Amino acid sequence: MFKAALTGFLTGGSLILAIGAQNAFVLRQGLLRAHVLPLVLLCAMADAVLISLGVLGFGAVVALWPALPRLLSLAGAAFLAFYGAQRLVAAWKGDYALVLRGESAGLWKTLAAGAAFTWLNPHVYLDTLGLIGAVSTQFHGGGAKTAFAIGAITASFAFFFSLGFGARLLAPVMTSRRAWQVLDLLIGAVMWGLAAELTRGAL
User: Which residues cross the membrane (predicted)?
Assistant: First the structure.
């Protein structure tokens, strides 16, 4: 049981550490200290659902619907391109004054964006339904598979809570307009890069 749980934790942790649109969004919200708890819960719980489905063998659904990865890639690319453009415009305009006044997106708008970053990201499905599901096949029996899933889910919760609330440690650095412009520029570049990668893979 312990070996299965540890394998799940290490597998889930190694996959989720890769920089991506969802992680960049959580980091930015953490720096803003805006709706961090609901957002990290949303991201971690979405991972928990997908990991559970992956371990249960949901990969068979993708095999039955080969067009699904392509559709998800195009939808995700469109969303990433739109959000990336927003961040690049913010970097150019320097919206730091808005941040100082504490003005940020509302809870539901933040959660909607977080959900889009999660569910419209094909890599999430590849990692959770595909890779984690594939690794789980080495364990036999309901108990071992459950322990593996719990380990992977624990890694997801640990990562998102550390990213969201740990971002506050960077708050003293983010006290200038220039720092926020650089952050928005980097996030926008990451979004556009991911959008281009998804589009190339789908076409």
Answer: 36-64, 71-92, 112-135, 147-167
